[in-house]
Amino acid sequence: MSERRTVDIKVLWTNLYRSVRTFLLTFVKPVESSISYRLVETFIKRKEFVDELDDDRYHLLLKVNLKNYSLNANEFSYSLIPLSLTYIPKIISKKGDYALSIFLFEGFSKPKLIASAITVNKDRNLENDVKYLRPILISLAPDISDTHIKKCSSRVSKLLLDDVLIYFSKYAPRYFETFNSLELMKPLVVMTLRSGLETFDEVKAVVSDGNEYREVRIPIKAPSWSFNDLPPKVVEDVKTIVVNPIVKGYDFAPKGAFITGPPGVGKSVMAEALASSLNLKIVELRPGLYRSMWYGATEKMLNAIFHQIIKRRSEVALIIDDAEFVSSRKYTIHEAHISEISTMLYHLQRPDRPFTILSANNPELIDPALLRPGRIDVSIVLGFPDKVMRRNIVERNSNKYKIKVDDGLIDHIVGITKWFSAAEVDAFIRLAASRGNSKISAEDVDWARKKISVNHSERRSMQEFLRWWVSKAQGMVITYIPTENEVE
Asked: Which of 171, 235, 237, 249 is surrounded by the fewest CB atoms within 10 Å?
């Protein structure tokens, strides 16, 4: 790690459970206080969630608001000590295959580890067989909303475990191999601790005009997708044309991207993956947030929102999903809508605008003035996934959902899902697994295939339309439109 931090690693055990060991790693000095025991009490009151380590479910345990109390990492880190000496050893002593880890950290989109405790049921030489590690996440002042935390909690668990393993490899190598070999499972519990004065990270825009007062709040979220979830063929071009010039700070780097393709092919995934690769959070702009029935009020609020987003352009990417509402002015007859489009075009040409991503199912409806170089520089066209990508989706989602599928059956699934979108392949896997109770057989596959209807000739026509649009598009275009042979 680039940051130098003072680390302390201790081994804790109790005479009540002689084979149980807890490995405590802290970056701050634990300080005993009433708040640390309140955290212990919270766990014990919800023991029914913590006891079942082999229940592979996710529980968002608590959203704790600490009114009139300043969050203190030293006091909270102390809570891991009484937990590791009393309550946690009792649970682990009954679960020979499982280890339990508690990660205490700040933030969530970019978690910073404060302390961790990993408890295992082993002898002094750590020779007993432990296979699984079940994490508990405790976040101080998370920088994203609780509704978004569930989506990225598994990713955060992996980041925090990797952080812990780095320090064990340096300062306690005797135990490194044991922890490194454990299979990290879904978080058992997530707890968010917020101070009374803390607010969600958001963009707030206010318009006050005479007797009218309007306020709009737009959450700022961390991306939950990455380039690993997309076809390698298109990712390589996107990195070369979009990501690398921006990361390297070149003046000629693109300022925006337009993503188009049929529903379910991964436009939203590409948008969030782009933001993630640029180390940016995302702000989603939707018409319902700013449109008004009053003359001129829509443009005023849109201007106010862009003004606030531009202030944070180094932190966020602006995503405008379903951008058909910014339709071509030749299809627009209402004066207010023309004014709204003109306002949007003005802000998307400003040199100080944030990186902007538009997505749409119907590219022909988008105003060409919006997609010209200088506003939205790059168009990314996504078609239906080819056989290689469908295999990747099946394998990745089988692992994600912990579904058992034979390798030979994967070939069959890839074959019968031709012309499926990425979202439909995902739905197909979940449907078959529902019938097979998390294990997919040939009968489950045949049953699920009858439940999903896909018109191949219609999908071919949609693919051909994308090729036609690409031939007419202006500016830089990145395409992933597999041929019929590649799809089938």
From this structure: 249
Distances (CA, A) of 392 to 176, 299, 398, 399, 482: 31, 44, 10, 11, 15
Residue whose C-alpha is closest to residue 129's, from 101, 96, 107, 157:
96
What count of other Cβ atoms lies within 10 Å of the Cβ of residue 334? 8
Contact at 8 Å (CB) between 206 and 93?
no
Give Cα separations from 275 to 58, 210, 316, 460 (angstroms).
27, 39, 8, 31
Sign of torsion over alpha carbons 14, 17, 20, 26: negative
The string of pLDDT tens digits covering residues 349-384 is 888 899 999 999 989 888 777 888 888 889 999 999
Percentage of the chain surpassing pLDDT 90?
38
Residues 425 and 288: their CA atoms lie apart, in Å, by 31
Q: Give the Cα separation of 344 and 371 in Å (integer).
A: 12
- Please name each of the domains of the chain with its CATH number: 8-195 (no CATH), 202-381 (3.40.50.300), 387-454 (1.10.8)
Q: How many other C-beta atoms lie within 10 A of the C-beta of residue 457?
A: 8
90, exposed or middle or buried, with CB in 10 Å at 0-12, 13-18, 19+?
Answer: middle
The DSSP string of 214-254 is EEEEEEEE-----GGGS-HHHHHHHIIIIIHHHHTT-TT--
Query: Where is average pLDDT lowest: 191-195, 241-245, 304-308?
Result: 191-195
Given CA atoms 158, 160, 161, 163 in this order, what sign does their dihedral have? positive
**How far is residue 70's CA from residue 63's CA, in Å, rounded to a whole number?**
16
Residue pair 315/201 in contact (Cβ under 8 Å)? The answer is no
Q: Choose among 302, 313, 311, 306: nearest CA to 355.
A: 313
More confident residue, 406 or 325: 406
Structure tokens belonging to residue 442: 């040939």
Identify the pLDDT of residue 463. Answer: 94
Q: How many CB atoms lie within 10 A of CB 34?
A: 7
CA-CA distance, 369 to 110, in Å (whole number)? Answer: 37
Q: Are 148 and 97 in contact (CB under 8 A)?
A: no
Q: DSSP string spanning 313-382? A: TTTEEEEE-SGGGSB-GGG---HHHHHHHHHHHHHTT-TTPPEEEEEES-GGGB-HHHHSTTTS-EEEEE
Q: Are strands 316-320 and 355-360 parallel, antiparallel or unpaired?
A: parallel
Q: How far apart are the first and last CA of the chain?
A: 46
